[in-house]
Amino acid sequence: MGFDDILHVTGGFGRHQWKLFFLFSLPVHLNVFVKIGNVLIVSPPKYRCVLPFEPENPTYNLDDEVWHQWYYYDSYAQEYSACTYLVNDTEVKCDKFVFDTNLGRTLSVEFNLTCEKDYLIATSNSLGVLGFLLGSIFFGNMSDRYGRKRIFTVVNVAYLSLGFLAIFSPNIWTYLILKLLMGFITSGIYYTSYVLLIESTEPEKRVLATASLNAFYCSAMVLASVLGYLAPSWKYLDLFYTFFGIPCIFYIWLIPESPRWLISKQRISEAKKAIATIAKDNNVKVIEEHLQALVSGAAPDKEDFTKVTILDALKYPTLRKRIFIILYLNFSFMVYFAIVWNVSRLSGNLYINMALYGLMEIPSLFLTLIPGQKFGRRIVVSSFCVATGLCMLMSSLKRQGDLWVQVWLNIAKAIISSVLAMNYAYSSEIYPTVLRNAGLGMNSFMAGLGAVICPYIYYLHSLWENLPNMIYTSLIISSGLLCLLLPETLNKKLPETLEDAEAF
């Protein structure tokens, strides 16, 4: 008997699982605020050089005649130069800039991230994900060793502390360091909550639960857009993001430790209490003797769980192949960030565009649940990755700023979001219990590595405008085709040991 049998006996997907589902919507919001919401904090408004004859505190807008006389016009990009002005038809660099005020006082305005320093905008986005990348490995192992609940509590306190410190950053370098640490901590919040939910959910409802949880990306991105529009400066927006971590502190009294993890650590008495809590929440009565028999039947040998590492998993040829494919798939998810971080370069209003990206999470939920439950994980993940690549390819056929670019990118965003939602459940079902949290940590590491590289790939457009898009397209299509080599996991019991995963 495995732990999944215990979940059926204790009520399946009942009130306890619904409680976890809604409580863990907040960690999803925090994840979005740190990894995606930073776009609204640092987003550069339009800016131009201050002309020699202009008075103190000039405004951004100028008459067309002045623009034409003093600034070089790039007919291909269809915009005036932001970093130079003309003196006798010669371009001259400047060190003073005036910003458009339509985005308020963003971090780019605060620390003058213009021209040669605009790489720091990409760096600020990358560092949040780099921290998430490093934290996924660290907290994956820590939660496998010390428990999901304990790590979740500790990292939430750290999140609040770092969030408040970021507001008082005296320079861009201090903010970047804190951004790295925020990403590091947020990974601990997100993945421990995710694993707590999936380890308490029966196989038949696992995709439904995890995909629905990721649907909160929609509310998080829309909320970030609203807060960004209302916040007069980046400091207020950062403060709003931080406040959302306060309720998570009280989860220590609201959620039990994962009984699956407790059983794997041979902490049987604690596991029985946690299972009894689940049964009580679900209005199910479990007799003590029956509970003892269930837990004893689900408990693996202690030896199996105390000496297993990710390196041990690589000794199994079938499991090794599957792990490499999953890791490559997660690396290719840089396409998601390429789409979202590109929002400030699209035509139209920044906050509306971000909200639209968030709303695209709603159709992605249905794209995940209906095909994923009917046709299985493998074929849906594979075909959706290829479809995302084709949409990216279509967007590259139009000039940046064209309405059709936004249309194709929104479709691609909906499809890749559905893949992300299903991938968490799919890979969790392939990894055995002994390595599930560490495996998800490795997934996050590869996804983070791709996201860290992603904004710098954009700068390759100086070689060829469509080169970045071609790279993104090739990655996501090839990963989709490789997914056909993975096993189907629909309605299957989770593998507990490495041997189970190899024979899966």
Written overview of the protein:
Helices cover 65% and strands 4% of the residues. With 504 residues, the chain is mostly helical. β2 (73-74) and β3 form a beta hairpin. α9 (172-198) packs antiparallel against α24, α21 (361-375) packs antiparallel against α22 and α21 (361-375) crosses α23. The chain is elongated, with a radius of gyration of 25 Å. The two termini are 16 Å apart. Mean pLDDT is 83; it is low at 301-306.
Helix/strand layout:
Layout: H1 3-9, H2 15-23, H3 25-35, H4 38-42, E1 47-49, H5 64-70, E2 73-74, E3 79-80, E4 84-87, E5 90-93, E6 97-99, H6 107-110, H7 119-146, H8 148-167, H9 172-198, H10 206-214, H11 216-230, H12 234-243, H13 259-264, H14 268-281, H15 288-298, H16 302-306, H17 310-313, H18 317-331, H19 334-340, H20 350-359, H21 361-375, H22 377-395, H23 403-430, H24 436-457, H25 467-482, H26 498-502
Antiparallel strand pairs: 1-6, 2-3, 4-5
